Amino acid sequence: MLLVLLILIPLVAGIVSFAWRSPSVKGWALISTLASSVVALMAFYAQKQGIIRFDAPWIPSLGANFSLNAGGMAAVLALLTAIVYLIIFIAQWNKPLADFHRFVGLMLLSQAGITGVFLADDLLLFYFFWELALIPVYFLAST
Q: Around Cβ 100, how many Cβ atoms within 10 Å?
């Protein structure tokens, strides 16, 4: 369940950030990335005890499963992603942006996608998370 939380926290926080047009969205971003970092740290230490996995049927007609695996480098890369995004939001704390809620939403969606790419254990799920990471980064780069 830790692996699902590691993806759901930034995903839900990113979606909420688009609708939240308040200066307190900075605090929301910091709290959500801090929570992601704590969950990633817990998953990293749980992985040291043994490989942690999550597996559920996703699209049975295609034989695709929602399968996440935090074995080997996946846990390290998920932890590194969470820490880097926490540093990004701390560095952006005093920077004025016109649409900060949009920036936060796109960054959190890309965090969920990148974390999912590292944890995906199914090829279709990997592609889904790759696109989830790629699309917000495109909009961040085009502004």
A: 19
Q: For 61, which DSSP code?
A: G
Residue in the structure block whose two tokens are 């910091």? 30
Does residue 97 surpass a pLDDT of 90? Answer: no
Distance between CA atoms of residues 2 and 4, nearest Å:
5
Give the number of domains in the chain.
1
50-85: per-residue pLDDT in tens? 778 899 888 888 888 899 998 889 989 999 999 999
Distance CA 128, CA 19 (A): 24
Strand, helix or coil at 143?
coil
Give the separation between CA 77 and CA 94, rounded to whole angstroms: 28
- The torsion angles phi and psi of 29, rounded to 5 degrees, stand at -65, -40
Q: How far apart are CA 58 and CA 84, in angstroms?
A: 30
Tell me the pTM: 0.91
Which long-range contacts (C-beta less than 8 Å, at least 24 apart) are formed by 27-33?
Answer: 28/104, 29/89, 29/104, 29/107, 29/108, 30/86, 30/89, 30/90, 30/93, 32/108, 33/82, 33/85, 33/86, 33/89, 33/108, 33/111
Range of the domain at 93: 2-142
Q: What is the mean pLDDT of the chain?
A: 90
